[in-house]
UniProtKB/TrEMBL annotation:
Its cofactor is Mg(2+). Residues 1-11 have a biased composition (Polar residues). Residues 26-230 form the Fumarylacetoacetase-like C-terminal domain. Keywords: Magnesium, Metal-binding. One of its GO terms (molecular function) is catalytic activity. The keyword Nucleus does not apply. It holds the Pfam family RraA-like. The lineage of its organism: Bacteria, Bacillati, Actinomycetota, Actinomycetes, Micrococcales. Residues 1-20, 243-286 are annotated as: Disordered. This is Fumarylacetoacetase-like C-terminal domain-containing protein. Gene3D superfamilies: Fumarylacetoacetase-like, C-terminal domain (3.90.850.10), Ribonuclease E inhibitor RraA/RraA-like (3.50.30.40). It comes from the Bacteria. Coiled coil: none annotated. Signal peptide: none annotated.
Length: 526
């Protein structure tokens, strides 16, 4: 590969990677890299995670791939493959791209039916014959910008995947550097760099095509279409090995969504994430049935102070996010907590985790309607933890509010965005002065209280309270009733009654209130 000469179009011509002369010594595949796929998967990678694919899994354009008899979830993943052009060890990230001779199209096929068999290693799931088609042409690396590539996938002529390398979590140079710290990368080795959203299941008879190109480079070089046709296999899995095993979680992940898999929606489906040290769990899906219209109406008519008092009666004193004030006084908030944690700045960690599609951006880019993004900034007011661009992204995604116990920069512009923001004040400094964006979806501390993903967050001008989902209905019902009673007491005080015995009401006044309440209920009956 290193000795080929690119033509005027920027490609080195067709390469048969199945030929033993060109077969890679190693095929190393990356789990997650594209923000779109990360949001879809619901797992946020802290650092690159890899698996190996067998050299015998390599195929050419035009080859077929068999779906074994008795299986159902053979899934395609259009990817960009890096071809190493120079043997290297312990490369720095800024030098990593220089060790790449070219890029080409790849399809990282996987059989979800066997995902359970070698969990983590993906041996049977990912290394079957024909499971790594590459080609047909290689784009010379020195002719393109690694951040200016595009990958597209078609199934039966319909475009199903399209993304660019502009915002990758792990740039290509970093992948080469990371892998070369432990192992020697040899000329001809291939690195599969992750797939964007849109990966799904293919069936026998489907034709899947993948293309990598560089639209902005001179001549717009392209790998050409990498074509694979799916055929039905005649052989089932042998009884002396792992058998196909499929459940709805695997169907959802293979197809890309429950809807695509033909599964009914669920309010709290398991994510099916394979837990490892490579990932921080993203925000668990809260039970979106909790905030019914009836409950919302009662919450909107109830002061945060009253809800806090009822929580105290349940034994929960420390439920308020202290020290934060709203950007838009007079506006209430209500939603499900989506958590984000910053750790104190350390320059090496900020270099590794502060740039690119970092945890802060991932949080805002994966917001769901009715989420309240809650940030742990350790009460540090000496820098901004939110600016107008990310505030706008949260609003566009449907967030109910953003809460930070740190500072906000571009505060006037953030206010103009319109989303309600509670913060510890304004500060002009950028995030990296005091913070490293670290984790999305964990249990955090904000304003002196603990917040977990899916907690119910309620705010008004007095402040913000966090209600455990398991207590929500009971607390709100009691607080709403308390609010009605307090309003009745207020009216009695306005009439001139002394507060002694009335606030709180003694037995006599409680009886009067119950009579009032009963008469009101009779009046409201149809």
């Amino acid at each position: 590969m290193a000795e080929t000469t690119p033509d005027s179009a920027g490609t080195t011509g067709p390469v048969d990677f199945t030929d033993r002369a060109h077969r890679p010594g190693k095929v190393i595949a990356l789990h997650l890299n594209y923000p779109s796929r990360i949001a879809q998967r619901g797992r946020s990678p802290k650092f690159p995670g890899y698996f190996l694919k067998a050299g015998t899994s390599i195929a050419r354009t035009g080859d077929t791939i068999e779906r074994p008899a008795g299986t159902e979830l053979l899934a395609y993943e259009g990817e960009i493959a890096l071809v190493i052009g120079q043997t290297c060890r312990r490369v720095r990230p800024e030098d990593g791209w220089s060790k790449v001779s070219g890029v080409t199209a790849a399809n990282d096929w996987g059989l979800y039916d066997l995902r359970h068999a070698d969990k983590g290693s993906n041996v049977k799931n990912k290394s079957g014959d024909g499971y790594t088609p590459l080609g047909p042409e290689v784009i010379a690396a020195d002719r393109v910008d690694p951040a200016g590539l595009r990958v597209r996938t078609w199934v039966n002529g319909e475009l199903v995947q399209e993304d660019t390398t502009e915002d990758l979590v792990f740039p290509f140079g970093r992948l080469v550097a990371d892998l070369s710290q432990l192992m020697t990368l040899e000329e001809g080795d291939v690195i599969l760099t992750g797939t964007p959203a849109g990966s799904s299941v293919a069936r026998p008879g489907d034709v899947v095509e993948v293309e990598v190109d560089a639209p902005g480079a001179p001549g717009a070089p392209s790998s050409g279409r990498l074509v694979t046709r799916v055929v039905a296999g005649e052989h089932a899995m042998a009884p002396y090995g792992a058998q196909p095993q499929v459940d709805d979680t695997q169907r959802e992940e293979a197809w890309g969504s429950r809807e695509a898999a033909g599964l009914p929606p669920v309010q709290e489906a398991g994510g099916g994430a394979e837990e490892s040290d490579h990932y921080v769990p993203a925000t668990p899906r809260p039970d979106r049935t909790l905030l019914t219209d009836e409950l919302r109406a009662k919450i909107d008519a109830t002061a945060v102070a009253t809800i806090t008092a009822q929580l105290r009666k349940k034994g929960i004193d420390n439920a308020t996010i202290d020290g934060v004030r709203p950007t838009h006084p007079g506006r209430r908030i209500l939603g499900y907590a989506k958590t984000l944690r910053y750790v104190p700045n350390r320059e090496d960690l900020f270099t590794a985790h502060g740039g690119g599609f970092n945890a802060q951006k991932r949080a805002m880019d994966s917001v769901q309607p009715d989420d309240v993004v809650v940030m742990e900034a350790r009460g540090e007011r000496g820098t901004g933890t939110l600016g107008d661009v990310l505030a706008l992204r949260a609003r566009v995604r449907g967030a109910a509010a953003v809460i930070t116990d740190g500072g906000v920069r571009d505060s006037a512009a953030v206010a103009e965005v319109g989303i309600q923001v509670y913060s510890n004040g304004a500060h002009p400094a950028v995030l990296g002065r005091r913070h490293v964006p670290w984790e999305v979806g964990g249990t955090i501390a904000c304003g002196g209280t603990t917040v977990q993903p899916g907690d119910i967050v309620i705010g008004d001008d007095d402040g913000v309270v966090v209600v455990p989902p398991s207590l929500l209905e009971e607390v709100v019902e009691a607080a709403h009733e308390q609010e009605q009673q307090d309003a009745w007491v207020y009216d009695r005080v306005a009439e001139g009654h002394p507060v002694d015995g009335l606030f709180p009401p003694n037995a006599e006044w409680k009886q009067k209130y119950e009579q009032y309440r009963a008469s009101r209920q009779r009046a409201e009956r149809p």
